[in-house]
Amino acid sequence: MTASNLSNSESLLLMIAGAKGAVGSTVAVASAAMRYQPELVLPSLTTKQMLPGLDPSEPVQVAGWDATDTTLPSAIGAQGVLSEEIWKPYADELEQVQVRTPPSDSLDLKGQVQQLTQDIKEFRGLYPNARAVLINLLPATVTENLHRFKSLSQLYSEFDPINLPDLAYAIAAILAGVPVVNFTPNEVEIPVVIDEAVKRGVPLSGRDGKTGQTYLKVVLASALKARNLFVDGWYSLNILGNQDGKNLMDPKRAAGKLSNKTEILNEILGYPVGERYGASSHQVKIDYYPPRGDAKEAWDVIDFLGLFGLPMSIRLNLQGRDSILATPLVLDLARWMVVLQRAGRSGPIPELAFYYKQPLGDDAPVTFQDQLSRLRQLATGLREEISRQKAVRSGR
Ligand SMILES: NC(=O)c1ccc[n+]([C@@H]2O[C@H](COP(=O)([O-])OP(=O)(O)OC[C@H]3O[C@@H](n4cnc5c(N)ncnc54)[C@H](O)[C@@H]3O)[C@@H](O)[C@H]2O)c1
């Protein structure tokens, strides 16, 4: 196969922390596919319609880090997300992708940032014309409250990164002027980090990609609210058999994800679900169930009340594919970040709430209607800004 459009256009460089995981490796395959058969991937991107200022056929390169030492193609095979007929045509390219070993746990935070800074420099050297974005796809980890740290130097001297490897990646990217997409539930956007990003003109987006069940929850809850139908209870069950599901069996690691999945409902509706029972009747459960692999299944039972308080209910069964739902969003987010940075945006981008369970920024929209309309407004604003910059460059 020969790649189109490689030589004279500006490409995107995705630097992925967790590059051999279920999502990371699927992103790598989709990126290779985009270079050879863009028609296989582009129709799944929301940015195809929304960001015409960014050429959707720009090549996407991948590099990154992972803690496992299998090759990327073996990792793709082992994940079982994609059949061989989908990824094997790109096997040679995927073999060439640079996936490095993460910094050793024996290094302190500063040492880890220094190693990652060097890696980032070398990755950028490989693709000098590419616009780089850091994509955080590390496993969900325990929640740490780091808001007490007042400066980077205090973080460096007092914080042990052992339970939050994500932080070193985010800091190294920001120091290098590279935007960060945080698809995980792990909180790296603490005040010190946000300040640094704003200072260096780096946009941040996160947290916790909104791919399947929670996406539909936002849609349905927004629809029920718009009709003044009162939500009396919402029971959500997820079964999944991939590594993410296994990892989330540790209650401490699942806590952040569960609270992101839970809080969102009260925020949309504007009242605590289950108030009349004295305890929340919004319940979210995640169970690791190996037979499903990445093909996760989600069940929702929604009890709601209408006129005269009469009860009604909805049953929803989503048979999704975790990484297949997540991958286009990762590609979309990378593209948004590049355009946002070009347009001079920095720090948290609340307009990207559409993509996240726990959107960053003080005024992030919560209902589906608001999230979509803020996203469209963002696209319009960026299109105008890009045209303005073009006009300035051409001296008009
Ligand atoms: N798939 C979805 O729909 C979805 C939705 C929302 C959020 N997420 C989040 O995205 C993240 C990735 O999901 P996944 O299914 O790909 O998980 P995964 O467990 O398959 O992949 C994580 C990868 O990170 C690697 N890793 C672990 N520690 C590392 C380190 N210190 N440095 C570099 N690599 C390291 C692991 O070896 C693994 O390959 C998770 O946090 C998950 O909760 C996924």
Topology, pairings included?
Layout: E1 12-17, H1 22-36, H2 47-50, E2 60-65, H3 72-79, H4 84-87, H5 91-96, E3 99-100, H6 109-126, E4 131-136, H7 152-158, H8 166-175, E5 180-182, H9 191-199, E6 203-206, H10 213-226, E7 230-240, H11 243-247, H12 251-269, E8 282-288, E9 297-305, E10 311-319, H13 322-342, E11 347-348, H14 368-393
Parallel strand pairs: 1-2, 1-4, 2-3, 4-5, 5-6, 6-11, 7-8
Antiparallel strand pairs: 7-9, 9-10
Helix pairs in contact: 1-3, 1-13, 6-8, 10-12
Bound molecules: nicotinamide-adenine-dinucleotide (NAD).
Residues 17-18, 20-24, 65-68, 102, 137-140, 165, 183-185, 208-209, 211, 242-244, 247, 322-323, 325-326 line the site of nicotinamide-adenine-dinucleotide (NAD).
Structure description:
- By secondary structure, the protein is of the alpha/beta class.
- The chain folds into 2 domains: 12-209 and 324-390, 3-Layer(aba) Sandwich (Rossmann fold); 213-319, Dihydrodipicolinate Reductase, domain 2 (2-Layer Sandwich).
- Helices cover 42% and strands 16% of the residues.
- The chain is built from 14 helices and 11 strands.
- It has helices at residues 22-36, 47-50, 72-79, 84-87, 91-96, 109-126, 152-158, 166-175, 191-199, 213-226, 243-247, 251-269, 322-342, 368-393, and strands at 12-17, 60-65, 99-100, 131-136, 180-182, 203-206, 230-240, 282-288, 297-305, 311-319, 347-348.
- The strands form 2 sheets. A 7-stranded parallel β-sheet has the order 3-2-1-4-5-6-11, with helices on both faces. A 4-stranded mixed β-sheet has the order 8-7-9-10.
- Strand 9 and strand 10 form a beta hairpin.
- The longest helix is centred in the C-terminal third of the chain and has 26 residues, at 368-393.
- It is globular.
- Residues 2-8 have low confidence and may be disordered.
- Bound molecules: nicotinamide-adenine-dinucleotide (NAD).
- Nicotinamide-adenine-dinucleotide is lined by residues 17-18, 20-24, 65-68, 102, 137-140, 165, 183-185, 208-209, 211, 242-244, 247, 322-323, 325-326.
